[in-house]
Design a protein that fits this description.
- There is one protein chain.
- By secondary structure, the protein is an alpha/beta fold.
- The protein has 6 helices and 7 strands.
- The protein folds into 2 domains: 100 residues, Formyl transferase, N-terminal domain (Rossmann fold); 82 residues, 3-Layer(aba) Sandwich (Rossmann fold).
- The protein is globular, with a radius of gyration of 16 Å.
């Protein structure tokens, strides 16, 4: 059984899909710790409602390296094997990424390397503006360079000429949780 640590700053919708896959025995995993850099992040509330260990870690007054060392210490204390970035709105330090090399995965809402470095609706607006007929998501290992780590899996979907960025986002998000669960299963 793989022991997961989750870093998140937002709603944590994808974490709910992982929790459901674990409950349904579709995934041999256990969430050891959920950490957020935002005290009001909904991901922490979801963790509490699912009786998962969770903690807000304040970054005020800390350098990126100092903050990441605090996070790393917590993850080690909870014996985490694999770190999932779920809506985590911080860039990780090179030292953190090095310490957890090939143990941190992220889901990006495009077919990398296309639209690397963009986030959320900005990605989908760029896909539409570029006139793409296909998009999707990429699960990749995290490296010091943003959205440039080795690709583990990609899932694709069509782009309709009448899509809005929000419609495209919803279609891609369905793929994101599927891809993430498949990758966790593969890595465990």
């Amino acid at each position: 059984m793989i022991r997961l640590g989750i870093l998140g700053s937002t709603r944590g919708s994808m974490m709910l899909k992982v929790i459901e896959a674990i409950k349904q025995k579709q995934l041999a995993a256990q969430i050891q710790m959920v950490i957020s850099n935002k005290s009001e992040a909904l991901i922490l509330k979801h963790a509490e409602l699912n009786a998962l260990p969770n903690q807000f870690v304040d970054s005020r007054g800390l350098t990126r390296d100092e903050y990441d060392l605090k996070i790393s210490t917590l993850l080690r204390a909870h014996r985490v094997d694999l770190i999932l970035l779920i809506g985590y709105m911080r860039i990780l330090s090179a030292e953190f990424v090095d310490t957890w090399k090939n143990k941190i995965i992220n889901v990006h809402p495009s077919l990398l390397p296309a639209f690397a470095g963009k986030m959320d609706l900005e990605v989908h607006q760029a896909v539409l503006a570029a006139g793409m007929t296909e998009t999707g998501c990429t699960v990749h290992y995290v490296t010091a360079e943003v959205d440039a780590g080795p690709i583990i899996m990609q899932k694709k979907c069509f782009v309709s000429p009448i899509d809005t960025p929000q419609q495209l986002k919803e279609r891609v998000q369905q793929l994101e949780s599927e891809a993430l669960i498949e990758v966790i299963r593969k890595l465990s």
